[in-house]
Structures are given as structure tokens and as C-alpha cells.
Amino acid sequence: MKRWNDKLRPMELYEIDKQSHKMMVAWMLFELNSKNMSLSEKLALGSRIVEGGLFEYFYRLVITDIKPPVFYQIKAIPEHYERLTAWVLEQLMPVIQILGDDFCTRMRDYLAVPDHHDLAGRILFASHLYASRYEFNLIKDLNPSDEELEDIEQSFHSSLREYDDIDGVPELLEHGSTLNRFASLCGRLRFQTRWSQTPRVPDTSVLGHMFIVASFVYFFGLEHNACQARLQNNFFAGLFHDLPEVLTRDIISPVKRSVSGIAGLIREYEENALNNRVFSPLEKGGHTCLSERLKFYLGIEDASEFLTVARLEGDLVEVSFEQMQTDYNRNEFDPKDGKLLKICDNLAAFIEAYAAVRNGISSDQLQQSLWRIRNSYHKEPYQHGVHIGALMADFD
Fold it and tell me: What phi, psi does 240 have (nearest 5°)?
């Protein structure tokens, strides 16, 4: 789904990239505004932000051809919004009902309300405005004669100022501030194309890929009846798992495996670059809480983001899937399914390659990647509670 497709633009701007950027900003605001909350209050807020973001994305998938000004006019008339939403739900339900009745009910209830004025809803809308404004700034100078641009820019400015009371928003809007620089860094991942130089249709960015992986791992968590902390940790770990690639580019797996020891060297470089460009600036800017959580999501504390861990007396301990399901599936253990994240990362890569081949783009690299990913689950098709072999077989 392309965005700003009635404007001259330096590159294609896609909905999935914008949604990913939006949720990264929403995570920043979530962490900053929940610092003084109890665990239960924080998890309730996080759950509403994550699922609200997913519900809004699903809605956007269906109404993508409706320009924002028209959609906002529809939202302003309850009867019209209700009719549009009923139609949207008709399109979505056959696809998402597999996620369970509870999830579908929560989505119906959420989408029944045109605008959410609680803290979660305001964080999501402020994040949406920031991510959209980021895209707008990419195309603004290329469309000097477009009469709409001045009104659009003014709308972004005035709308965002309505959220100044949310912790982090004023700093986010301050050019050159710590939060603004980090959010801008995250947005640059839309410029990183997946699969390096391998031609594909559709082309996808690292930024969009991260949102897909985050969604996958969240949905599998629902299937596993994961606790709220585990669901949110999985989602945000997926959302940031390729953040180092804004500093290193997307280095494809065959390159990482081609030279002995190069994967470890790349990992070391990534950690040094993250420390210099992300962690240290956040900490110096007074946002140690963001730095610490990012380190947790990226596996800096435990050597890999793909380890399944729980926190015992302040220390991270690697656990099995069975232990996670029986002993550590509770909020107080701050659990995270790193191995499930790896499965979802591979599944997303598999689908990217499969879609390209189905669309007529065939290359040795794509065919080898499909074979390699399938073959990696041949001996153990059932891993971490997911029958990944059967899932991939559905694409035959």
C-alpha cells in the first residue's frame, strides 16, 4: 500500500513502513509516560497501545484508497463512520477470526469508537502524526507548487501541539533533541531495502519487515496464552530487532555465513555502533529507561535477541519453551520468547522471497533462500509451540 501517491516523492512510501515508525514512537512515549505506574497499570497501557496500533493498521489496510481529509470527514459523522466500520469488519473478519473470539471482540469494540481520548489513544494518535509528518518532510520540497502542502503542514503543527501534555512529545518535536534524533534514526530504516541487491516485487524495507515480525510474534503469543508482559516484550523485541541495520545496512545471511567468524565480527560492530549512536545519547539525554529496555529487546544483556529468557531476581536466565509455558508465563518474570522471534523473522523472510517468486521475480538467491529456510525446519518442524514446517508447506 503506497502513501502520498498523489505527490511527487523521492521514493515509494509504504503504509507498513509508516505503521512501524508510528509504533516505535508510540513505544518511546509509552515508556516515558508509564515510569511511575504500577506493573499492572503499565501493562494495561501497553496492551491498549499495542493492540490499538494493530487494530488501526488492519482498518487502514482496507480503507487505504480513502485520503485522510475525506476519512476525517467520515469520522466526524457517527452514522457514516459506523457504516464504513461495519463494512471494514466484514472484510477483516474472515482473515483474523483465527486469532480467537476475544481478539476479534476487542477489535470490534476498539474500532466502534472513532477517536480514543484516553492516554493510549492519544499516544497512538500523536505517534501517527509524528510518523506522517516525517514522511511529509521528505516530499515537501519536491512539491513547491502543490497548494495542499501549506495546509497539511499547518495541520501537523497545530495537531501535534495539542499533545504537548504527554511526556516526551515536546522534546520529540524539538529539532536536534535526543528523542527527535532517535525517532528520526528509526525512520531512516525505511531507506534500507531488504535482501540487499536482490531484485524483488514487492520491494520491502527493513522498517516494514520489523513491524511484520512484531505482529507475527504477538499473534503466536496469543496462541500460547502468553501473559501481558510476554506479549508486549515479544512485540517490541520484534519491532526493534533489526535496529542495528540502520548503522550497518541489511547484510544478507549468505554473506554472514560465507566467512568464518564474520557473524561475530558483525555482532561486535553492531553493539559498538549502537552504544555510540543510540544507547549513550539516550542515557546522556536523560532517557536511561529507553536505553535499558532497548538493550533487553536487542539481547545486549544475554548475547542474542533470539534467546528465550525470564528475569529471576534481576538476572536474565535462559529457559526452554516448556519452562516458559509452565513456570515463567507470568508478568513478574518479564519473559521474552527470543526463539519464537527468530522463527517469525525466518517466516517473514520466507514470505518475502515466496511473494517475489510468485510475482515472477526468480533468482538463484531467492530460490536458495526458500530452500534454506524450509530445510532448517525439516528435522524439527515443530519448534517453540509453532508447527513452522506445516505453515511453510501451506505455501506450496
Answer: -115, 5
Residue (of 132, 6, 113, 117) closest to 59 by Cα position: 113
Which residues, in sequence order, are bridge partners of residue 382? Answer: 387
Instruction: Give the whole-angstrom CA distance, residue 352 versus residue 350.
Output: 5
Q: Which portions of the chain are predicted below pLDDT 50? A: none
pLDDT digits 0-9 by tens, 165-204 = 999 999 999 999 999 999 999 999 999 888 777 778 878 8
Q: Answer positive or negative: Cα dihedral of 388, 259, 297, 12.
A: negative
Helix (H, G, I), strand (E, B) or coil at 318: strand
| Residue 50 near residue 231 (C-beta atoms within 8 A) | yes
Q: Give the cell for residue 354.
A: 515466496
Alpha helices in the chain, H assignment, sequence order: 15-33, 39-62, 68-75, 78-96, 101-111, 119-139, 148-161, 169-172, 178-187, 206-223, 228-240, 245-248, 253-258, 262-274, 280-284, 288-297, 321-326, 338-358, 364-376, 388-393
pTM above 0.90, yes or no: yes
Q: Which of 61, 93, 324 is nearest to 211 (CA)?
A: 61
Of 152, 122, 158, which is closest to residue 137 (Cα–Cα)?
152
What is the Cα Rg of the chain in Å? 21
Is residue 1 a contact partner of residue 61, using CB atoms and an 8 Å limit?
yes
What residues have CB less than 8 Å from 170, skipping those under 6 apart? Answer: 164
